[in-house]
Amino acid sequence: MNSWKSFLATISWTLMFLLFFVIFFSKIFIPKWIDEEDNRMSFIIKGFYKEPKDSIDVLFTGNSDVYRGVSPMVLYQKYGITSYNFVSSGQRMWIGLAMLEEALRYQSPKVVFFNVDEVYYTSNLSWAHHKAYDNMRLGLPKLKALLDSSYDRPFIEKLGHIFPVFVYHDRYKELSWSDFKYAFYDYTDVTKGMDLVVGADPYVSDQDYMEKTDEIREIPDLNIEYLNKMKKLCDEAGTKLVLFEVPSPDSWGYDEHNAVAKYALENGLEFLDLNLFLEDIGIDWNLDTFDKGDHLNIYGAEKVSLFLADYLHENFDLENHKNDNWDKQYDLYIKLKEEKENELYN
Fold first, then answer.
1. d(Cα 64, Cα 294) in Å, to the nearest integer?
2. Mean pLDDT, rounded, for 32-60
């Protein structure tokens, strides 16, 4: 009997050691997406978990248009609105659904904005899934996402989202001090989910990209299903879902607008297409984009955010959450912006 107990104890300790080994080295070997070139994905997603539970009143979801085009700190500074961009690069609808479900585990936002241009994409991008799922905590939304039939990748790659060392073991050749530093880092994000860029590269193509038309670019049926699931999640959580589109002449047009407007009307949703309010927002395509109209830079993002702040203030009864902690983070946000400007222009 004692030998059997001893055997079980040895097995248990061995398994515990192996699990510790896998978890520890996964944190070391996983890529650290912390720079502008990596879209700051580790800060954006892991930073979300540093926010106190039920402290975020407005949640922005979607793809890179959001983390380049919305500055939550501007909303805070103007009206004390607490918001966060819980978004990912190259996001597909099934990733967006998983991230929304994950966000609602930790926050009870009054309003959820979903940026809609990803409704036209159905391709599988390996790197997009890794930047999102590798940074998400292990939980039911993540497990459901890995089993989603739309995520068509090999089993070992999916397992790598839980134990990254199985996918990234070859990185031992390129490990640096930063891999150890950021393995156990405090990812508090003072930008609240932005990839803040200050450079400008003008958009000089068709200035009438939002010229009215009756044409409709139909949304793929698969993505309609995910939109419906997002709406259901928000309805069940008692939060208001608002579809919106950040100004982006490179990836948007009136035929896409018509399709989303039709869906919104049929499903009782609001649709705020900011491409129709460029003059009100004050967008200058010579100054407010850093990649020829695909994404906004910080100057365009701050203009958009002032517009969104007024929209929220006028249409929703949101509490003013001005407090010392957010004030300090706002100061750090301004400092970060100034540092980036100094690096670029001095």
1. 10
2. 90
